[in-house]
Write a structure and sequence with these properties.
With 204 residues, this protein is mainly alpha-helical. The protein is built from seven helices and two strands, in the order H-H-H-H-H-H-H-E-E. Helices cover 52% and strands 4% of the residues.
């Protein structure tokens, strides 16, 4: 399974491999389904708590600001999952939230290109704001901030442009993500191994 901490290089190919199981003891299967339901609960909590604007800046450093805090305070104990499982659920949900923000920014850029009421300077300014998370957060929260030299001299209608950014965010952000599938879960490489027995390959 690929390491999420390291992006794929040009020499790596990511793929999904479907594997079928032989018969599973009913009790074991019920335990797997229980783990999957709890896995989904972790993801849905993360979506509900961290997909919004207020948590936007936490996403870059979520392992320190969220995961480590959950470990220290034992907050994650409520889901009654081994740490490996809830950490994978957290990673997966945060990854999806980040992707949603990235897609949202691309949608806003496309909308800008079709908006005849903004100038080239204003488009350049908004593109810069969308790329700088701290500045985007300040605009969304209506906080004052010091403009970097690259955009300080641009001729813009500041109130109009900032309101436009906020309006686009509200329009295109969509609803809070939610995991409806309670039969899916993730495992990483240290959680399983392959063994070869009786001329068959098994995952254990």
């Amino acid at each position: 399974m690929p390491n999420k901490d390291k992006p794929a290089t040009i020499n790596q190919i990511l793929r999904n491999v479907k594997q079928r199981s032989s018969s599973i003891d009913p009790k074991d299967f019920e335990e797997i389904k229980l783990i999957a339901r709890r896995f989904a609960k972790v993801k849905n909590y993360v979506y509900s708590r961290f997909a919004g604007i207020n948590s936007f800046l936490m996403l870059k450093n979520y392992r320190k600001l969220i995961r480590d805090v959950w470990v220290q305070t034992k907050f994650a104990d409520q889901w009654k999952l081994p740490a490996r499982y809830w950490k994978l659920a957290l990673d997966d949900a945060i990854s999806n939230i980040k992707s949603n923000w990235s897609n949202l920014k691309n949608t806003i850029k496309k909308a800008l290109r079709n908006n005849p009421n903004v100038t080239e300077d204003e488009i350049h300014y908004i593109y810069y704001i969308l790329k700088a998370d701290e500045l985007l957060y300040a605009v969304l929260m209506r906080n004052t901030f010091c403009k970097p030299p690259k955009i300080k001299k641009l001729e813009i209608r500041e109130d109009y442009v900032h309101q436009l950014i906020r309006r686009y965010i509200r329009k295109y952000k969509g609803s809070t993500p939610y995991s409806h599938k309670e039969t899916n879960l993730m495992i990483d490489a240290p959680m399983y191994k392959y063994i070869y027995e009786a001329e068959s390959l098994f995952m254990k």
